[in-house]
Amino acid sequence: GDSLVIAAHAVVSDEPAVTARPYCDPAPIFDMVGFNRLDDKFYGIDITPGSPYSFSFTEIPGPDTAPGNENSPNGLAFDDATELLYFSSNNTPGDGVTASAIYTLAGGGAVTYVGDAPGLVAGATFAGGHYWYVKNRTDDLYMVDTAGNATKVADMAGDTVQLRFGDVEFNDADGMIYGSAVDAAAGSVRVFFKVAPDGAGYTELLRAGTGTLQLALVGGVLYGHSAGNGEFFTVDPNTGGATSIGGIGGPQFTDLAP
């Protein structure tokens, strides 16, 4: 597909270089994958640190399997073992979604229906052979197996928050799921949190500001992305603090998968 390269001014840091990883063999290698809501297409994304940072976007074959609202497809998550990209899709406006259809995307654009998951799936991750997500406007952590069976794991915060996503991302280094959301029960304040896959240890690392980020952990660097204006960030997983690295005016990805 066509490639688009965008350069953006940023301060050089001592963060490690991005390590590329395979996506949908025999497709090209990308740092991460996203769905661009501006043209309803999947893209491979490469980020090159520097001053300025540069971003390369390469279209990946894969249809929008449902009409969708402006934020669907969503819930992207990559399974390393099968090299399949999982994603969710719905065609209900706003947050009034009772179920989201889960699909896989393989190399060459083959799409396979997996099953339905409760609620709106707006951010997801893949770990331990399962697809994980937090049901939108709740604190309910769900696990979906590869046969499409969804199981509610826990109310992470005892029903004290209403998380709108955003994204979640599993970190192999500490075995925790990290998430970026806004709390609809508290004036849509930004929340950055971590939680164990069994729902234990929910900890808010940041509760300040507005807006959510799509997340992708690549080469030891946690990247964030704003679907509102195309901006990319590096994110400190210990604090949730985000530093802009450019990208404004580029594609607007509803979700990312490393």
Write the SSE topology.
Layout: E1 3-8, E2 32-36, E3 41-48, E4 53-60, E5 74-79, E6 84-89, E7 99-105, E8 111-118, E9 124-127, E10 130-134, E11 140-144, E12 150-155, E13 163-171, E14 176-183, E15 189-195, E16 203-207, E17 214-218, E18 221-225, E19 232-235, E20 242-246, E21 253-257
Describe the structure in your own words.
- It is a single chain.
- The chain is an all-beta fold.
- The chain contains no helices and 21 strands.
- The chain has strands at residues 3-8, 32-36, 41-48, 53-60, 74-79, 84-89, 99-105, 111-118, 124-127, 130-134, 140-144, 150-155, 163-171, 176-183, 189-195, 203-207, 214-218, 221-225, 232-235, 242-246, 253-257.
- The protein has a five-stranded antiparallel β-sheet, with no helix packed on it.
- The chain is globular and about 40 Å long.
> Structural class of the secondary elements?
mainly beta
Span between N and C termini?
Answer: 19 Å
- Number of distinct helices: 0
The dominant shape is globular
Low-pLDDT sequence parts: 1-28
Strand line-up of the largest beta sheet: 1-4-3-2-21
**Largest sheet at a glance?**
5 strands, antiparallel
Run of helices and strands: EEEEEEEEEEEEEEEEEEEEE
Share of β-strand residues = over 45%
C-alpha Rg, in Å?
Answer: 17 Å
Number of strands: 21
Mean pLDDT over all positions: 85
Please bin the fraction of helical residues.
under 10%
